[in-house]
Amino acid sequence: MRQVERTIFDLRRGLPVVLRTPQDDVLVQPLEGIDDDTLTSLATLAGHAPGLVITEHRHARLGASMPSASHAVHLPLSVDHRAGDVIAWAMAAEADTPKASQPATPAETAALGLMRRGLLVPAALSATVAPARREAVDALIADGTLLAVSLEDVQRYDEGDMTSLKRISEAEIPLAEAERTRFVLFRESDGLREHLAVLVGDPAEWADPVPVRLHSACLTGDLFGSLRCDCGEQLRTSVAAIRERGGGILLYLAQEGRGIGLANKLRAYHLQDDGLDTVDADQVLGFGDDERRYHVALQMLEALAVTRIELLTNNPGKIDAMSRGGVEVVGRQACYGKLNEHNRRYLSAKAERAGHWLEDVLEPSGVTDRRAPRHDTSGSLE
Ligand SMILES: Nc1nc2c(ncn2[C@@H]2O[C@H](COP(=O)(O)OP(=O)(O)OP(=O)(O)O)[C@@H](O)[C@H]2O)c(=O)[nH]1
Ligand SMILES: [Zn+2]
User: Fold this and answer.
1) pLDDT tier at 162 (50, 70, 90 boundaries)?
2) I want to staple 120 with a disulfide (CB 3.0 to 4.6 A). Which of 18, 115, 258, 353 is the partner?
3) How much is the ipTM here?
4) Which of 233, 249, 265 gets mutated to test ligand 1 (max ligand atoms within 8 A of its CB)?
């Protein structure tokens, strides 16, 4: 699997890589950072013009219907296409509907999985290496200029979403909201992401079910107190609420921007400034409504021997994910941040489009500072 991880690093550097299938070698290059020269060099390397591969979400955004039940689409390009046109097809708020498209090949679909894992925009240039160019491409692979990886390995890596976690280090860190707190750091086996379990109070004294908050990282909100979201307040008030309930766990998950990464979240904010809501902005960039997966949280709870929880959340998706993963969610506690004029649209979109339970926060009148951050016991889930 190390070769797959190396491939992700090359893609993040904007370099092309080769995906090897039993039939073909496919050159793929991230869309991010391309210019006209990139298109020309890729065409020279492959022996013909590349195509653009985009996700089903992006394709739907372009107003086109999917050619089949595939999750990605290949849009053929010609040598006349300029990088600006290609970038617009992949990630502009407004773009022409493509004239022709075909289902992406398994190698192309797998390539987009690598882009996601590398927190890039999930769009790529792709070109099967023409027979006449195979020798030249092989030489570049042999001298280390190009990395090649087998499709089979990439697919196994993708499924291996179940990547194992290692408990790496831990320390007591007294917090303003909970003085008796221990941070435990877990690292994913490919080394790309680290997640924290913040253990509040003495585990021997935790209630059953254990109060748990799954908190997705939000650098802008958690650290800088951004008013565009409610994350910073949720983080602090949930630590306090866990302490008040006799202790429990806050899992701080490396899922910045609902899993799309900070660079893409800033792109999405930019699109929201032009009028899109939080879900549509992610779709413009090729992402689904919520790219988060919770297998890491499940593994951390397992490592901490926690099987029955009371979840601090307003997000029904988190409850589903825990239950499907075998953790019994016995109750839910609401967990609000303050409503303000900057986050009102974001919170409304979460309620309306993703079904989050935010009705207590979002009232038709009064936009500013109406409500202090608080926690409600919303009862059990029966
Ligand atoms: N893509 C995207 N992510 C955002 C945006 N605003 C906030 N986020 C991210 O959304 C996530 C919110 O995380 P959480 O507070 O754990 O989750 P939640 O889904 O709101 O659920 P609860 O807070 O548990 O009710 C964080 O990763 C933020 O970085 C946005 O406009 N676009
Ligand atoms: Zn946030």
Assistant:
1) low
2) 115
3) 0.98
4) 265
